[in-house]
Amino acid sequence: MTVTLITGGSSGIGEATARRLLDRGHRVVVTGRDEDRLARVAKELDVLTVAGDTTDYESVTAAVDTALNAYGRLDNVVANAGFATHDTLADGDPERWRGMLLTNVLGPAYAVRAALPALRESRGRVVLVGSVAGVKNTPGNIYSVTKWAVTALAENTRMLVTGWGIGVTLIAPGRVDTPFWPGPVSGPALSADDIAGTIDWALGQPPEVDLNTVVVRPKGQAV
Ligand SMILES: NC(=O)c1ccc[n+]([C@@H]2O[C@H](COP(=O)([O-])OP(=O)(O)OC[C@H]3O[C@@H](n4cnc5c(N)ncnc54)[C@H](OP(=O)(O)O)[C@@H]3O)[C@@H](O)[C@H]2O)c1
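A: This is the predicted complex of the input protein with NAP.
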């Protein structure tokens, strides 16, 4: 039995990943803040849901405990929850950056911290959903700064846990057509299922393989 916890599994990439992994036979636990969105996913998919904010450590440990109580193990954590304020250092609302910073940086760190004991037992995997914005700079983009931190978190985590038999993969998507974008996505875009396929591929690597960094853009995305 393979058990996977996905943060932010009630929409977009996280939800598509839950669908893919269920098809593969994983047992899946998903989190998210909005209970109605989670209820819709629970109605459509055979997943366990845990309502909570990834910036609240107790709710992250509750999600790990849900997996352990239900299935007795945890094999993978996909730290996916995140959002962008879609503004810049010149025009943004500084108060909105706080939540973005906490969700995008502290959230995945909490997910790793909470899941590590179980992953150490299962010799499992961590997947961090970063961004092309975390390997390229764009003008005045604080979201990009948070995703550079995720890139660093991936390598810091890898160095810590590789001796424990745990794999760490940073998946850095380019533009993906999801509710992440406030309006219609402009320019070429991947589907959420494209990235779900990449996550599925990373999780399905042979046990001895540690796949570290995958950047995935739609053809036609130049930056
Ligand atoms: N779409 C893109 O073009 C793109 C490109 C590169 C990287 N990414 C990254 O991919 C990841 C998934 O984004 P997406 O495109 O799938 O967006 P999405 O459709 O908006 O999904 C985001 C998910 O994260 C959850 N979430 C957000 N903040 C949370 C928090 N503090 N605590 C718990 N759950 C939270 C959301 O549910 P609630 O709001 O109900 O909590 C939702 O389930 C993000 O990390 C994003 O930065 C996206």
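The chain has a mean pLDDT of 98. The two ends are 40 Å apart (CA to CA).
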